[in-house]
Amino acid sequence: MIALRYAVSALALSLSLTAAGAFGMVGATMSAHAVGSVPMTVVRDAGDPVGTDPTGGAQLAEPGVIVNLGPGVPPPPAMPGASFVIADMDTGQILVARAPHTPRLPASTLKALTALTLIPRLDASATIIVKPEDVRVEGSRIGILAGTAYSVPTLFRGLLMASGNDAAYALARANQSAAVTLTEMNATAENLGAFDTVAKDPSGLDQPGQATSAYDLALIGRAAMKLPDFRGYVSTKTAAIPGGRSRDGTMMPGFKINNHNTLLYNYEGSIGVKNGYTIAARQTFIAAATRAGKTYIVTEMGSANGSWRPTAALLDWAFEHGTQVTPIGQLVEPGSVTRPGLTAASGAGPSEGATRQGSGSGVLDRPTVLRLPALQPWMGAAGLLSGMVLVSAFAARSIARRRS
């Protein structure tokens, strides 16, 4: 049975989303979807953009909430985000999704890609001397000191647990430079089949053209969790940061950092992964949990709700009914697909048998600001007005960017 401790919050969330219809939410529709000989139900909203032939399976181009419900299986609980994915982390089978390939601002969830790229490249026994330019970064910082040497694992804990942008810059610089790191991050995403992803800042701070998708975050999170060091960092609740000498020569004491992922403290079986926030991106999240030999990964983008409870409710549904639904798609394996229009051998022409994203254009050319989550239909008139303000502010680059 689904654990009852989230039933009240899930019901309240569902009721609030239903009530939002008075402010412009598009109503849900139901239609039959045959899979083999078993009748299934596809739950979806009208009005979402529909592409063709997306990476991971054709059904991922469906509008709205996409799920193949078997007989007697209840619909998944409402998820307030603009897009989300829930998948079996072991098999890669996707159970439910909404707008999985819509590019959005990643915020600090991009740090998972930074870590996935750098953990194999940086010597875990080495130390990195922090420079002034590392600590002058905008947004959230763990408080490392310029001129002080920190171990690579300490900086990765600061990056992934406390979302330290200063740690991100120090680690990226230690890998020759931030420019080299970004090139390698984008190559890593390409190898994963994460074709919606463009990394422009190793910390995930908003940059023009930077983007990822709920589908890509699931690919990134799944790959990163296969690294034992990464898995250890994101499942740690508290860690110590050593002290050092400040600019004026004063010796500063060490301190502790706590993991910003509140699901880790509140959900049985939670094993990570990474949350994020900026004003323009809103709440973003990669989460994973293990129970009774099953592990599910959830990714969320563009949510106004920073609570762990909607994620917990969706995970509860997955643990109860995940084996009773027909998958809607697949998280592709690294190196198994190529970008549309390219072949693995020649770099030109379509790859035989490759599963492709429907846009047919490089993500570098996509204007991220036009896909801010505040402009989604489910947010209604108030959301549209808010989105217009965000787009204007983002275009002027006058929004103060901050991180969770």
Overview of this protein structure:
It is a single chain. By secondary structure, this protein is an alpha+beta fold. It has a single domain, classed as DD-peptidase/beta-lactamase superfamily (Beta-lactamase), CATH 3.40.710. The chain is 27% helix and 20% strand. It is built from eleven helices and 16 strands. The chain has helices at 7-19, 111-118, 132-135, 152-160, 165-174, 178-192, 214-224, 228-234, 263-266, 309-321, 380-396; strands at 28-35, 38-45, 65-66, 68-69, 83-88, 93-98, 127-129, 149-151, 238-241, 244-245, 251-252, 255-258, 270-278, 282-291, 294-303, 329-330. Strands 3, 5, 6, 13, 14, 15 and 16 form a seven-stranded antiparallel sheet that branches. The longest helix is centred in the C-terminal third of the chain and has 17 residues, at 380-396. It is globular and about 70 Å long. The protein starts with 6 loop residues before the first helix and ends in an 8-residue tail after the last helix. The model is unreliable at 1-50 and 343-402 (pLDDT under 50).
Q: Main beta sheet: strand number and arrangement?
A: 7 strands, antiparallel
Give me the Rg, rounded. 21 Å
User: In total, how many domains does the architecture comprise?
Assistant: 1
Q: Oligomerization state of this entry? A: single chain
* CA(first)-CA(last) distance: 34 Å
Strand tally: 16
Low-confidence spans: 1-50, 343-402
Number of helices: 11
- State the fourth-level CATH superfamily: DD-peptidase/beta-lactamase superfamily
Query: Which structural class do you get from the secondary structure elements?
Result: alpha+beta
Strand percent estimate = 15-25%
Shape label:
globular
CATH T-level topology: Beta-lactamase
The CATH architecture comes to 3-Layer(aba) Sandwich
The level of helicity is 25-40%
